[in-house]
Amino acid sequence: MKLMTIAAAFAALVGLATPALAEDAKTAAAESAHAPHAPAFTLKDLSGKEHSLEDFSGKTVVLEWINYGCPYVKKHYESKNMQKLQETYTGKDVVWLSIVSGKTAKGFSQADADAAGTKATAVLLDPTGETGKAYDAKTTPHMIVITGDGHIAYDGAIDSKASTDSADIPNSENYVIAALDSVLAGKEVATTKTKPYGCSVKY
User: Fold this and answer.
1) Which of 42, 66, 142, 143 is disulfide-compatible with 52, CB 3.0–4.6 A?
2) What are the distances in angstroms from CA 25 to CA 30, 40, 44?
3) Neighbour-count burial of 121, counting CB atoms closer than 10 A to its CB (0-12 exposed, 13-18 middle, 19+ buried)
4) Helices 81-90 & 175-184, crossing angle to 10 degrees?
5) Secondary structure of 137-181 as H, E, C letters
6) Residue 51, exposed/middle/buried by CB under 10 A (0-12, 13-18, 19+)?
7) Which of 120, 127, 129 is nearest to 95 (CA)?
């Protein structure tokens, strides 16, 4: 009788422990599969005001590397495609930061941003290239989507057609739209990394 009681007690303990162990396993698996953490940075905008990534904790953030003289960037600005994206998603409380890294940042002015008609939250200057290199930004445009908890949800090209022809925009798959819509809906991002295309960042 005592043996049966001990066996029953042991079975009960195992039964209680199993859900906890299973939950721990799920947590560990989720953590191991988690997206890479976004490197911290602090950069000045065109008016000299500093912006840090941590300032936007809890919000979805887009990083967009730019060079308005690049034909690949012109494709998206002269067609107003980029401005429409900026306006749409900043209207959904997304922070959109355009970054000018390397030599292009020297002499870059508010007049350049105004001429492009940007609708970004801010245009940030990265003359040393430190932030660009931290994110391995190699081209303009290069797009990064960061979740509210500070992880990179998407890294790569704006869309699927690596051309300078704006006529290709309507027929391309826009990876940034797909990533932002998924993040904002609390869903998993299907395509998390692609090869960016454009002009090289002049470090």
Assistant:
1) 42
2) 9, 30, 43
3) buried
4) 0
5) CCEECEEEEECCCCEEEEEECCECCCCCCHHHHHHCCEHHHHHHH
6) middle
7) 120
Nearest to 159 by CA among 112, 125, 124, 194: 194
Q: Are 175 and 144 within 8 A, CB to CB?
A: no
pLDDT digits (tens, 9 = 90+) for 80-106: 999 999 999 999 999 999 999 999 999
What distance in Å separates the CA atoms of residue 113 and residue 152, rounded to the nearest whole number? 26
Could you give the CA distance from residue 143 to residue 66 in angstroms, rounded to a whole number? 10
Structure token pair of residue 143: 């797009």
pLDDT value for 34: 63
Confidence of residue 35 (pLDDT cuts 50, 70, 90): confident
Residues in contact with 66: Cβ distance below 8 Å, sequence separation at least 6, in sequence order? 73, 98, 99, 100, 116, 123, 140, 141
What would the mean pLDDT of 130-142 be, rounded to a whole number?
98
Q: Using CA atoms, how far apart are residues 79 and 165, in angstroms rounded to an integer? A: 10
